[in-house]
Amino acid sequence: MNRPVHVRVPGRVNLIGDHTDYTGGLVLPIAIDRWTDVRGTRADRVRLTSSDAVDPVDFALDGSDGSPIAGWGRYVAAVLAGIGPAHGIEGTVTTTIPVGAGLSSSAALELAVALAIGFDGSAVELAKLAQRAEHRATDVPTGIMDQLCIASARSGHAMLIDCHTLDIVHVPVPDSVEIVVRFVKNRTLEGSGYAERVRECAEAEVRIGPLRSAGRADVERITDERLRRRARHVVSENQRVRDFAAAQAAGDLQRAGLLMIESHVSLRDDYEVSIPEVDAAVEQLCATPGVHGARMTGGGFGGCVVALCDPGTEVEGWRVRPVAGAHRVRDV
């Protein structure tokens, strides 16, 4: 044991394509320059402390006979249960990803722990492992966007992900744009309407088939007004992702910004996952000279907004850049 380990995993912000991944739709996120780091040495257990939590975690390699499984320890135990590691780690967890902001802090922790205890599969396998851990830890039926983005990201690029096939197209982010993230309100998907939206989409698919391949005419066949609005968001959002990727490739920031605004309106009105504070932040950003567009980002019910801006635009928020995905900094 006693071999040093250092793993670094970024957070993510989704530029467009929310509440589409769990129906196998399209998303376009970036990994951002905010990281979770796990540093330590190999050990025969998993003993970790966190700069953001009072209680440490201490588990056997099978996730048993250690800390009560609560708080951040839930995610560590869930990863252990899914991997059957050959070795543990004794060390620390630090993060610059704001917790509860909708920037994938939990997914980053899951991937970081998996890599720190020796996971050696592909990026897709790592993402699937972390998604299962998220489900086990929270009982929230999230899609795979967060985990696959931060496992597979490429520096300087957004990722057009097909969440059905898991195919990825890396789309360059031009230097002529600044991506700004503004935190609005802390949130958690546990206890929110997230699981209900997943169920509503499943009900809509019983009526018209997979939403990932449905068209607007299919949506209009749904007689239940609430389910029709949910399906309309998913179908229109998938098309907006395609259009946004094309606009970005063409350097048409005005078109890309308008698509972000359309996305927010759809999430607010048809999907009902925004909140007044987020709506106000989007409205204020969109009224600012130099901002091409803004929208809520992530699962909703609070969290952050993201804006597409000209460089140097005077808006409050974090300037983020697209970075490479999860990796071992040192494991020698």
Automatic annotation (TrEMBL):
<dbReference type="GO" id="GO:0004335">
    <property type="term" value="F:galactokinase activity"/>
</dbReference>
<dbReference type="InterPro" id="IPR013750">
    <property type="entry name" value="GHMP_kinase_C_dom"/>
</dbReference>
<dbReference type="InterPro" id="IPR036554">
    <property type="entry name" value="GHMP_kinase_C_sf"/>
</dbReference>
<dbReference type="GO" id="GO:0006012">
    <property type="term" value="P:galactose metabolic process"/>
</dbReference>
<dbReference type="InterPro" id="IPR019741">
    <property type="entry name" value="Galactokinase_CS"/>
</dbReference>
<dbReference type="Pfam" id="PF10509">
    <property type="entry name" value="GalKase_gal_bdg"/>
</dbReference>
<comment type="similarity">
    <text>Belongs to the GHMP kinase family. GalK subfamily.</text>
</comment>
<feature type="domain" description="GHMP kinase N-terminal">
    <location>
        <begin position="81"/>
        <end position="151"/>
    </location>
</feature>
<dbReference type="InterPro" id="IPR019539">
    <property type="entry name" value="GalKase_N"/>
</dbReference>
<keyword id="KW-0547">Nucleotide-binding</keyword>
<dbReference type="Pfam" id="PF00288">
    <property type="entry name" value="GHMP_kinases_N"/>
</dbReference>
<dbReference type="InterPro" id="IPR006204">
    <property type="entry name" value="GHMP_kinase_N_dom"/>
</dbReference>
<dbReference type="InterPro" id="IPR014721">
    <property type="entry name" value="Ribsml_uS5_D2-typ_fold_subgr"/>
</dbReference>
<protein>
    <submittedName>
        <fullName>Unannotated protein</fullName>
    </submittedName>
</protein>
<dbReference type="InterPro" id="IPR006206">
    <property type="entry name" value="Mevalonate/galactokinase"/>
</dbReference>
<dbReference type="GO" id="GO:0005829">
    <property type="term" value="C:cytosol"/>
</dbReference>
<dbReference type="InterPro" id="IPR006203">
    <property type="entry name" value="GHMP_knse_ATP-bd_CS"/>
</dbReference>
<feature type="domain" description="Galactokinase N-terminal">
    <location>
        <begin position="4"/>
        <end position="36"/>
    </location>
</feature>
<dbReference type="InterPro" id="IPR000705">
    <property type="entry name" value="Galactokinase"/>
</dbReference>
<dbReference type="Pfam" id="PF08544">
    <property type="entry name" value="GHMP_kinases_C"/>
</dbReference>
<feature type="domain" description="GHMP kinase C-terminal">
    <location>
        <begin position="249"/>
        <end position="313"/>
    </location>
</feature>
<dbReference type="InterPro" id="IPR020568">
    <property type="entry name" value="Ribosomal_Su5_D2-typ_SF"/>
</dbReference>
<keyword id="KW-0418">Kinase</keyword>
<dbReference type="GO" id="GO:0005524">
    <property type="term" value="F:ATP binding"/>
</dbReference>
<keyword id="KW-0808">Transferase</keyword>
<keyword id="KW-0067">ATP-binding</keyword>
